[in-house]
Amino acid sequence: MDTMGERNRDARIMITLREDEMEALGTLYPALGEGRPLGVEDIQGELEAAGVVAGILQETLKQLPDKTDPAGKAVSCVLARGTPAEDADPAYLKLSQKLFDLRLYGKEKGGRVDFREARPFVVVRKGEALGRYLPPGPGTPGITVTGRILEPGIKKRIPFEPGENTFREGDYIRAAISGRFVLQRLRFSVSEVLELGGVDFHSGNIRYPGDVILRGEICDGFSLSCGGDLHSAVPLDATEVKVKGDLSVEGGIIGREPGILKVGGAVQARFIENLELECRGSIRLDGVILQSRISTLGFLQCGEKGRIFNSTVQAVEGIETWQLGHPAGRKTLVRCGSDFRKLKLYGELKSREDDLQRQLGKRPSEADAETLLQLRRELEELRDSAAALLRELNPRPDARVTVRDTIYPGVTIEICQVLYRVETAIPRGSFYLDPESGEIKVTGT
């Protein structure tokens, strides 16, 4: 056994090519004892002998001779690396990244995640760019470490197709309406209608520009806002609901704290309970209004089982119900003929006018002369505004409150700010404002 030869071994290197010739791996066996080390020229010669002519990592070559292992074991590293081909891009339709940015687990606010702000669907606006047609792009050839040229291929792109409620404008595909982005297989569209199984942690709070069909409950603490019509196939538990169009409910509407419902169109439901409702259109109900505050610019009609009690109801065009009030004498106020929005504004103007009057009643010093003049100007402007508004408070002096059955004590009827208090039960009647006497009168009793 030649132990002296083992102690004095010359350095050598083995070059190995990856199967696809994209890398050349060098395994260095360092010199031992008085053995001859390898130089950079030696390594280059071995690479050339192995057919490696491209992608040589010169810095690695310079450092490799200095790499040693205390036990004399082999050291390996990549000495050359090829350049892959970059595939050419075909002409294709690239969809906006926003369309795939779902927020399934809520939104962070102040360091905490609000799970009510989850978004399991994407809403787009009318005219919004959904995608853009991109022209074809050239590829770039590659090369292996042995110098073999790699021709570029063609990238695979998903062939999306625009569908319903989209249109092309130049290179862009845009939404023709506001609504929910829908992708079915390769075809995308915009749906005006959003169907929901409920409003909860899965859906998050709903803010939708189109119509909504609701098939489940709105859980406590969640809100719903839609820019079109809302149809609820179940009783509507309203915490905070806003509807720009019409609202139809296949059941009653029950308010949950804060119990606010605002509707830009008409409302149709079976009953209303514990709710604050503002509505621009008419209201049609089958049953009762209980412990609620209802305000509408239209007409309010309750059906054959309709009863209004322990509530405040304002309807500009008039009110019709089966019964009004309660045998126990619970307070109930119904008001018609007046615009509730302008009444509220008029009250705010009068309150501000009273405040200014109190300030002007104080004896001002000479230093307050300019302030006094400003207050008088503001008071005069307020009086002019209040006077103009007063002329618009009562758009429907012909509005009536019609009750087909009993009107109970405890009921107050107001028509154009004229009051009528019911002291004893009235079997039925239609209440109207007599233009000659300026008093509320009743017929049909």
Automatic annotation (TrEMBL):
Q: Which UniProt keywords apply?
A: Coiled coil
One Pfam family here = FapA_N
Please list the coiled coil stretches: 365-392
Q: Where is the signal peptide?
A: none
Question: Which intervals hold domain Flagellar Assembly Protein A N-terminal region?
Answer: 13-184
Lineage, uppermost ranks = Bacteria, Pseudomonadati, Spirochaetota, Spirochaetia, Spirochaetales
Q: What is this protein called?
A: Flagellar Assembly Protein A N-terminal region domain-containing protein
| Taxonomic superkingdom | Bacteria
